[in-house]
Amino acid sequence: MPGMPDTARIPPWLKAKKKYDKRRATRPVRWQMIAPSAMERRSVWSRADEARFDSPQFQAQLLRAFAAKQPRAGGSTGATSLPTPTSPAEASSVFSKDVLQNFDILTKSAKVSYDEIARATLTGDMASLSHIKSIKGLLASLQKINEEEELALRERQGQGAPLQPPELFYLQLVDEGHLSERLRCLLFHFTRAEVLDQARKEQEVVLAALSAVVSSQGLTQLTQLLLFILNFLNEGPTSSPAYGFNLCDIDKINSVRMTDPAEGGTLLDLVVRECQKSHPDILNVITELEPVDKATGADEKNRKSAIQSFRAEITKLECDLDSLPDAEPHRAFSKTMLPLLQEWTQKVELLERGEGEIGAEWERLRVKFSLKGETPKPLLSSLATFRGDFKKVMDKNKRPGSRKKKNESAC
């Protein structure tokens, strides 16, 4: 049967599976199973105790709730794209419309003169630059000015043509030399340094989530309960017993609908009721997996790529600062930037160590549940969805008389 494991090579340390004498066929659950040959000996599957959850009463409930019937078809959703905004055109300047727009915003929002901004940019006066709301846009616009625009400004200046304040401001910066080196350092401070801090916070969130999954006793017991249910429901003349399932499928538990109209709901409803009745310790999975919710937006591939980029950028900034002359205003700029450069380097080293810690915790989790995959993102997303659904169903069942009313209406 598709999705069922190959039993040809079953390790000797895996427990033999019980055969159930079902009185009628049941609706199977199509989750991805783990082949016995791919099982980790230290995984939860190697010591799964399905017999703990087996009882005549629970078997009868499963037979009634999932009696084989025709499957139902699902639907689909679509997406609508938003229009892209446009911006007005600017003219009468060597500079592009984007540069002029940023300079216009600067002059309206900043309470400092162009001369003061130029001095702060040349000397690395972070206190003054930080007070300018549009400083990031201004620095980015200065960096985009190309060689042709600079030559055109020089030509107009040589011809004695009047220049606009933004054009004079730019030439003032260029005349001191090494403007590109300054802009790279300042832009890293005002844009990339913030991303460094965000990446570290993301690492801490992911590490906490992985540790929570590894240590969750409720999840360990729940997987064994689900394994019993899967083997009971899927047993048939052409199927093989499952020794473990892909934990990333756990969010599908709320989409497996019961076929008995007297029961209603999904497999998740049945599992929650069984836990509330006979296995209350499993309900701790709600609080144990709470850190997972914060980690669903983390992206390991993007984060690792960003760390490599940070390392390359910092190496370039070191060369930039080494190239500055030992004279004013370059000396003042270097004096300000060197301590910041050391701070950025330490943060990148911390991020690199953090990836090692995440890798070690992910390996523990991979072994525990015989997982495959390069990153934990799909698993954490699936667990967060499962936790949210589990909590909703559990809260619903706690309402006074909710289960009683449902049974009465079905009779």
Looking at this protein, list some descriptive labels:
58% helix, mainly alpha, 411 residues, 0% strand
Q: Gap between N and C termini, in Å? A: 37 Å
Shape, principal axes of CA atoms: elongated
Structural class: mainly alpha
Share in helix: 55-70%
Average pLDDT for all residues = 86
Strand content: under 5%
Tally of DSSP helical segments: 15
Please identify the oligomeric state: single chain
Question: Mind explaining what this structure looks like?
Answer:
The protein has 411 residues and is mostly helical. It has a domain of 86 residues. It has 15 helices and no strands. Helix 2 packs antiparallel against helix 5, helix 5 packs across helix 8 and helix 10 crosses helix 14. The radius of gyration is 32 Å and the shape is elongated.
How are the SSEs ordered, and which strands pair?
Layout: H1 56-65, H2 97-109, H3 114-123, H4 126-130, H5 135-144, H6 147-158, H7 165-176, H8 179-215, H9 217-234, H10 267-278, H11 285-288, H12 300-323, H13 330-369, H14 377-398, H15 402-410
